[in-house]
Structures are given as structure tokens and as C-alpha cells.
Design goal:
The chain has about 80 residues and is mainly alpha-helical. The protein contains 3 helices and no strands. Helix 1 crosses helix 2. The model has no long low-confidence stretch (mean pLDDT about 85).
């Protein structure tokens, strides 16, 4: 953290604008936030799709490995 503070201080001392310093500081932290957001949205979508599939299935689990294997075998186009 100290190295980052020194870097930003050096940028300001060399004449960087406040906006460019703010962009430099936030862009470094934004990448992990966006990665976590994308992973969270993907998991939420998977959860919603699993619940939707469960409503269409009768006496069958949407996460059953046998069901996935049977579906893959039925859709195989060799």
C-alpha cells in the first residue's frame, strides 16, 4: 500500500491531473471487483437456470450426473 501511495504522490508531484491520478488509483482496484461481479452474476444465473429446470422436470434432479450423461448421449451427432 505504501508503494502505491508513493507512486500516486510522485505522479501528482510531476504534474498529473487529479482526474488521471484518480483513474490510476481506481483502475488498479477495479479489475478484481469486476472479476468478482462477473463470477457472482454467472453463479446467480446458474442458480436461476437450475431452479427453472427443476420446475420443468418431474421426479428428476436437474443436477443429476446420470441425467446429464443421458442428455449428452441423446444429443450426440456422430
Amino acid at each position: 500500500m505504501l508503494a502505491r501511495t508513493r507512486e500516486l504522490g510522485l505522479r501528482i508531484a510531476l504534474g498529473a491531473s487529479g482526474r488521471s491520478v484518480a483513474v490510476a488509483a481506481t483502475s488498479h482496484a477495479l479489475a478484481p471487483v469486476l472479476g468478482g461481479l462477473a463470477a457472482g452474476l454467472a453463479l446467480a444465473l446458474a442458480f436461476v437456470l437450475t431452479r427453472l429446470a427443476r420446475s420443468f422436470l418431474f421426479e428428476l434432479s436437474p443436477t443429476d450426473p446420470t441425467t446429464f450423461a443421458a442428455a449428452a448421449a441423446a444429443l450426440r451427432t456422430d
